[in-house]
Structures are given as structure tokens and as C-alpha cells.
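Submission sheet (multi-component)
Chains listed below:
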Amino acid sequence: MSEATASRTTAPGSDGPMIEIDHLNKWYGSFHVLRDINLTVTKGERIVICGPSGSGKSTMIRCINHLEEHQQGSIVVNGVPMTNDVKRIEQIRRNVGMVFQHFNLFPHLSVLENCCLSQIWVQKKPRVEAEKTAMEYLERVQIADQALKYPGQLSGGQQQRVAIARALCMRPEVMLFDEPTSALDPEMIKEVLDVMIELAHEGMTMLCVTHEMGFAKTVADRVIFMDQGQIIEEAPPNEFFNNPRSERTQLFLSQILGH
Amino acid sequence: MTTDSTFRTEMIEAREAPNQSRGVLGWFRANLFNGPINSIVSIVVILLLARLVWPFLEWAVIDADWIGTTRDACTGEGACWVFISARFETIVYGFYPEAARWRVDIVFALLAILVAWLAIPGTPRKKWVALFTLTGFPIIAYFLLVGGSFGLEYVPTRAWGGLMLTLTIAVVGIVGSLPLGIILALGRRSKMPFVKGICVIFIEFWRGVPLITVLFMASVMLPLFVPGNLDFDKLLRALIGIMFFWSAYMAEVIRSGLQAIGKGQNEAGQALGLSYWHRTGLIILPQALKLVIPGIVNTFISLFKDTSLVLIIGLFDLLAIIRAGLTDSNWLGFSTEGYVFAAAVFWIFCFSMSRYSQYIERRLNTGHKR
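Outcome: structure written.
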């Protein structure tokens, strides 16, 4: 498939590594959720992570901004090694934007306030400037006209676009997407994917847990398949979809693409 | 070829809902008399209400005596409100020296202004007013009420009484127990075992003891433990006891709100790089407190009513001062008037709080929440 490479505007790997995950292991109690994960993401790279539910995909990307604590191994984000120190964690989180399956917008704040909150309190920006940045990004996800509404008054797709804008307002180096379209009605998936595709074309480093295989084919530099807490296969999209090497990957693909 | 499929060529325009309001008579017919059994029930209930309410109205309003200064004004037909009006000053100020009562007036007028300022939407500079209400005002109120400096006569707290004492206890209790309750609720959810342990022990201790016991302990037992002539004021001890007691309840009310906020809210805050206190103060608490407004106001109302328990440790609150008036040999036999009046005053305050809470709930509703 040629469109996978044709659509790239930024060559991946042009700069140093953005995320380095080395021998990452994590347990929930005695349950070994992440087993020896090694993954290096270069600046500007777009990575799609897929796999059956319970395979540890979400847990893995949630480790990158320390929403989940790991027990073994190391994570380095943009040159900053992850520790348990709160200041260090907050420093890393400022560089890492995250979009959740259930949007997690703040329902008591308007769309605009949702986007300004962390700019004002974390980046210490004056309100006027924060609002300007917020409107800029709301414009980009084409929802600026809803800025004064509350999240509860928007559709799922609109809420998710606000969530993306909210994360972008912090001008992160990396964006993590945790199944951003899984909670959406089918007719709203496209509006969110379009925003994500645009973002990818602008050269944002992205890690995306998703089942949207069309998205993976269009924008991903690498597709990672996980099962039982480990990385099973890692390949560029056309290789991954056309010529999967592991049996598990083949089975998984036949299940999700076979209908 | 024909098929079973159908399709629409024109969309249906939205129409107005059929008119359902039919005036007062229509409402009565639809809600009270829509069938023989309902009609009978309605009539019986209305008759019962009339039987109960009418004699009370007759006693309290129609046959009542309003004007006069002494017992001679009472004709004995209905209620004699002269009993209240003759001792109204005492009911409001207790034994506070007459010459200094203007100080009480100022404090409560100021409090009324501040509360109104904060309660009415749209008033400017709410933040500063709130800050003043919580910091400047208590200091001013303290110096005015207690006196002893700035050339003001010293008024010991044992001279305080009546409505003024009731309001003082209620306001201090409410203003003190809410922030303390918030801190306890947050502490109880802390991951730090020491903080959590202290909060759990505090809450469970105060919640497990009856308020009367707390008041007794504060007034009788505490002086036994405190060494020498270090003498806490009795009112101050009662205030601290009441504050701790109600803060434990408040903590559990607020904790129920905290638990209702999904984990995703905290995670979204974390992902944006917000610190614990920012997440708590800007994201979690505003939502949690909004959810538990009914519970918080419920606790306020309980607190307000239970201030009357201080009469057992010899403080003369509104109820106690009315009771004291009943033993006045000039005014024997007016206990019904006294208690009805006390009940009415308590009811007005509690009902206002209840209505305001409902109003604020509607106002804060940002709607359509998932």
C-alpha cells in the first residue's frame, strides 16, 4: 500500500528518541500485566498499538505518563527518566498529552475553561493568553463555536475533539491516545479520526491504542500488536496487514478484518 | 417489480405539544378528583386538614392577643403573644448589657450583609468578600462581641444569650465544620497511612459520641484535665466540641461526594500535569461538593437545631432563654406560646437554608451530565 508512506510529511526518526521503554514489567497484585516491554519511539513517529482486550495496551501507554506505576524497567520521556518523584512525574506529564476513551472532560467547566485550566495553573499563563491559545486549538478541531458550552451539552465526537484540543493546549511533545474512538457512535468516529490524521501530518509524535485499522494504514509508521502483556509483533503497516508473521497476529487480524 | 419497502419523501415538521394546562379547576379535576375513590380520599384529607389547621389558626392568630406589656393584656381566648413581645429584647440578646447591644446589632447586620452579598448571584468581588467573611469578619465580630479593648466594655460570654447566642454557635459551627470536614474527608482518602489513620480515628471517635456527651465533656471533664488555672471559656469549649462533632459528620457527607467522582476526572487532571492540590481544588472538590449540597445543608440544619442542646451545660440559647421566661412568676402558664415561638424561629432559619440549597443546586446544574 503506497498511501501509507505517501501521506507522511515528516520523516520519522529525524531526531533522537522521544520515548524509550526498557524491559518494562508491571504486575497487578500477582497478575503479570506487562512483560518485558521494550519500545523506542523517535520524534515525530506515529505508532498504533492494537491487540485483544486485556492485552496490556492501555496499561502500557498509561505507564508513559505514570498514570500506572511500573515495578521493573525504565521509561525515559524526552530525555527525562521516570522516577517516583512527584515533581519529575509532573514535569514529564507537561510534555505528554493524553486523550481518554471516555473523554474525561471536566463537566463543571465550560469547553473554554477546560482548555485553559492547566495552562493557567501549570504553565502559569495569564488568562487572556491561555484563552487565546485555547481558542486557537478549538478552532483547529473545529469546535470554537461551542467554546462557552458545557461538555454535557456536546455530542461524544465533539467532546473528544475538545479533549484533544485540551491536551494540545499544553503544547505537548507526545500525544497518547487511549482508544479515543471506542466510546463513540459510528457516525462520530470520522470527525475524531480526521483531527488525529491532521495532527499526525503535522509531525506530532503519537502513540495510539485503537482498533481503527484504517487509521493505522493511513498514518502509522509502525503498528504494534500486543497480547498477554507482551509485544508480539512490530512492523510498518503494510507489512503488518499484508504479511503478518506471528500466528497470533494473523488470528487477531482475521477476527477484526474478517467481517 | 414491487417490494415491501416503504420510504418517506417529506419530513414531518415539529408541532407544538398539545395544550395540557386547563387552569385551576382543571388541575383540581385532574389531580384530586379524577375518579370516585380519589375524590373521597381528597375530601377526607381536606376535612382532616381543616380540623387540624383551623383551631391552630384560631388560637395563634384570630383569637390571639398582640398588644400590651403585661399579663393583663391576655384575655385567655387564644395565644398571648404579649409574653413574647414583652421579653423580646431578652430573647434576642440574652443578658447582654443593654448599653452594649448596639455591638451585637452591628455584628449581625454586617453578617447579614456579607451572607446576602455571597448568596445573591451577580454581586461583584465575591472572592474578596468571601475572604473578608472568613478572616476579617470573625476578628471584628470577636472584638465587638467580647469587648475589653478599644474602650469597649468587656462582656463575658456567660452574659451572652438568646437568639444572638444561637446564631453565634450556629455560624461558628457551620463555618468551622465545613472546611474541617473537607480536610478530614480528603485525609481519609489519603494514601499516606499516618494521615489516613488520624482522620479515620478522629471521624469515628466524634461520630460515635452523642453530642450531649461531647458538651458535658467539654464543660465538666475538660477543666479537670487542664492543669492549674488555665481556664478556657465555657462557650469556647462548647464551640470547639460542636465544631469537631459536626465536622466528623460533614467529612462523611463530603467523602460520599468524593467517591462519586469518577477516576477519569483525576486522571485527566494528572495527565495535564496538575498537582494534587490543583486537581483536588479545581476539579474534584467543585464537583463533589456540588453533588452533596443536599447532604451538607442537611448537616447544617441539624447543627442549627442542635445548638439548643447547649442549654444542658448552662448556656442560655434561644430555647433556654424562653424556658427561663416560663418560670417567671408574672408569666406562669405561657409555655405553649414560648415553644411555638421558638419552633417558628428555628423553622424560619432552617427552611431558608433548605430553600437556598435547592436554589443553588438548580443554579449550579451544568446539565446533561453523562
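Remark: The radius of gyration of chain B is 28 Å.
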